[in-house]
Amino acid sequence: MQINKYIVTSEYEGMRIDACLSIISGLSRSNIQRLIDEKSVLLNGEVPKAKFKVVENDEITLYYEEPKEVTLKPVKMDLDIVYEDQDLIVINKPKGLVVHPAVGNYENTLVHGLLYHCKDLSGINGEMRPGIVHRIDKDTSGLLVCAKNNNAHISLSSQLQDKTCFRKYYAICHGVFEHDEGTIDAPIGRDEKDRQKMSVTLKNSKEAITHFKVLKRFDDSTLVECELKTGRTHQIRVHMKFINHPVVNDAKYSNKKLIDESGQYLHAYYLSFIHPSTKKRMEFVTDMPSYMKDYIKMKEGNYE
User: Fold this and answer.
1) What's the 3-state SS for the chain?
2) 137 an active-site residue?
3) Which residues contact 76 (CB under 8 A, 6 or more apart)?
4) Which of 7-21, 137-151, 179-193, 289-303 has the lowest mean pLDDT?
5) Does residue 109 contact residue 131 with C-beta atoms inside 8 Å?
6) φ and ψ at 129, to 5 degrees?
7) Catalytic-role residue among 18, 58, 137, 250
8) How far apart are CA 154 and CA 147, in angstroms?
9) Long-range contacts, 284-287 (Cβ 8 Å, 24+)
10) Rounded to whole angstroms, how far apart are CA atoms 94 and 142?
11) Which of 61, 147, 175, 289 is positioned for an S-S bond with 42, CB 3.0–4.6 A?
């Protein structure tokens, strides 16, 4: 366990403690917020709220345990690598692949494949999620970026927190959308009736914002582009259900007849962020998967 003490200088006066400590410690803001929740941060000897604003000469104490050495066994996988350099790797994840080990899925995850391919990954998220900056659901396909070192991880995490990392998805949804575009601003939290689900709720929830744009209408479904402004668990799936347009083939959030057992028709096709080292904006686009293309071909001729 490390114990680090920092004295707030004038340049940070009036800044939230989570933002201030993120800058001076080098840890991501989300990581700092977690440490505050765990009472591992003290401000002048007392536990603060993340939104508390610091003043000059405040003393911040940070109790921080260095990430454990990764002990997961690397597994050789045929990864679809879109881009790679010494700082990061962008993967086009296929449907059916779990991103990192968790209850019920401790083997053959993307993390196992990355450990075989990269050898070195950032350790900020601990031994079970090395390199993982953000994730997409098991049965959602598409782009995600992973960090090879802690500096890259901190930079990418900060961009997600500051909403300067942009993510867009293709989603095929039930029903015909009335509006060509719109914004869903509805907080998401754990579903009280089913703890394995998320739901739109005011209780123990976090802000969730999804922008959508209609790309093509069919007789009983719609292809939409969804852009995330926040990154809550199952966000697009929950928001589409909330507006009565659940994602096609989504066994968890739709009561419509399933096409098969392969999972929701949702694909993360666009990813953009500032490179941690070069500071240049990078953009990546991947093609729609074949099962979604096949669905659209089947529906062609019945859209507006």
Assistant:
1) CEEEEEECCHHHCCCEHHHHHHHHHCCCHHHHHHHHHCCCEEECCECCCCCCECCCCCEEEEEECCCCCCCCCCCCCCCCEEEECCCEEEEEECCCCCCCCECCECCCCHHHHHHHHHCCCCCCCCCCCCCECCCCCCCCEEEEEEECCHHHHHHHHHHHHHCCCEEEEEEEEECCCCCCEEEEECCEEECCCCCCCEEECCCCEECCEEEEEEEEECCCEEEEEEEECCCCCCHHHHHHHHCCCCECCCCCCCCCCCCCCCCCCEEEEEEEEECCCCCCEEEEECCCCHHHHHHHHHHCCCCC
2) yes
3) 113, 116
4) 289-303
5) no
6) -135, 45
7) 137
8) 9
9) 284/82, 284/83, 284/90, 284/143, 286/82, 286/92, 286/142, 286/143
10) 7
11) 61
Place of tokens 């003393």: 59
Two structure tokens written together for 33: 């917020």
Q: How far is CA 284 from CA 171, 242, 257, in A?
A: 18, 29, 33
Tens-digit pLDDT profile for residues 80-138: 999 999 999 999 999 999 998 876 677 899 999 999 998 789 887 777 788 999 999 99
145-173 confidence digits (pLDDT tens): 999 998 999 899 889 988 899 999 999 99
The residue type at 76: K
Copy the structure tokens of residue 222.
């719609």
Residue type, 184: I
Q: What is the pTM of this model?
A: 0.77
Name residue 205's beta-bridge partners. 189
- In this structure, what token pair is assigned to residue 7? 């004295």
